[in-house]
């Protein structure tokens, strides 16, 4: 059984002392005082209960036993550091890959900018992107299948144990086929559309949650012609005349020539709050710190 007094730090001091063969140089290399180095070596010798050094005047010389122990300790410390790094990488900490989850709609503009910024901050980092619904992404984050997610913060989802970085707010619009004749092309009153067909994202998506809430305010249950699992399919259905939908403004620049976007009247207006989430237990992970900094920069630019 190894004595409690034999610590990794004392072995580090021994390795450095055998390398430098001088208390002052060892202290300088380890950023310790000479007294601290001498005390660590003396304590290690006492714990081993065998001689490690001899005194030649004021000079301390390592014996063959100290040289042997230092050689083995150097290998031990190197293996231990490698093992710790492997364990950190396995849990995602400072790994060469970061797994990011996001909403489909954010891949149009937000995610490309964030990923380019991340590449400038950490050029060797590989980014693995997963797209899905709010509920699915948050579930995978909590199960450590993803390192971070960027999604809507508005749904009634549990953010306990997570760090939240707000980024920007997005308006919701009524999306209609381009040739549809609106009662009021400047401002949409959802009550005027209660007899129209709608297309929607599936449950678990932030836009679906907002759509249901807006129709409830308007006092009707929408007729859903079709549900899909990504916003691009949804927008194509609107463009093809299958039905109307509520869509976030961030997709307008991509689909503006194929879909008519009409602002909602005041009582139906809503905003999606987009933000980054990651486990609080990993708040010091260098990869997540870099991503958080980039998310804050993008949020600042979007809000000014």
| String of helices and strands | HHHEEHEHEHEEEHEHEHEEH
The proportion of residues in beta strands is 15-25%
Query: What is the CATH topology classification name of the largest domain?
Result: D-Maltodextrin-Binding Protein, domain 2
**In CATH's first tier, which class of the largest domain applies?**
Alpha Beta
Count of DSSP-assigned helices = 10
The biggest sheet, with number of strands, parallel, antiparallel or mixed sense and barrel status, is: 7 strands, mixed
Number of strands: 11
Rg (C-alpha, Å): 30 Å
Overall structural class, as computed from helix and strand content, comes to alpha/beta
Helix content: 40-55%
Global geometry? rod-shaped
Low-confidence spans: pLDDT under 50, at least 5 residues?
A: none
Alpha-carbon distance between the two ends: 63 Å
Tell me the number of structural domains: 2
Give the CATH architecture of the largest domain. 3-Layer(aba) Sandwich
Average pLDDT: 90
Description:
The chain has 304 residues and is α/β, with parallel strands linked by helices. It has two domains: 8-90, Winged helix-like DNA-binding domain superfamily/Winged helix DNA-binding domain (Arc Repressor Mutant, subunit A), CATH 1.10.10; 95-304, D-Maltodextrin-Binding Protein, domain 2. Helices cover 42% and strands 22% of the residues. The protein has ten helices and eleven strands. It has helices spanning 8-20, 23-30, 34-48, 64-90, 110-121, 134-142, 206-218, 231-239, 252-255, 286-302; strands spanning 53-56, 59-62, 97-102, 126-131, 148-152, 162-176, 197-201, 223-228, 245-248, 260-263, 271-279. Strands 3, 4, 5, 6, 9, 10 and 11 form a seven-stranded mixed beta sheet that branches. The protein has a two-stranded antiparallel ribbon with strand order 1-2. The protein has a two-stranded parallel sheet with strand order 7-8. Helix 1 crosses helix 2 (23-30) and helix 2 (23-30) packs across helix 3 (34-48). The relative contact order is 0.14.
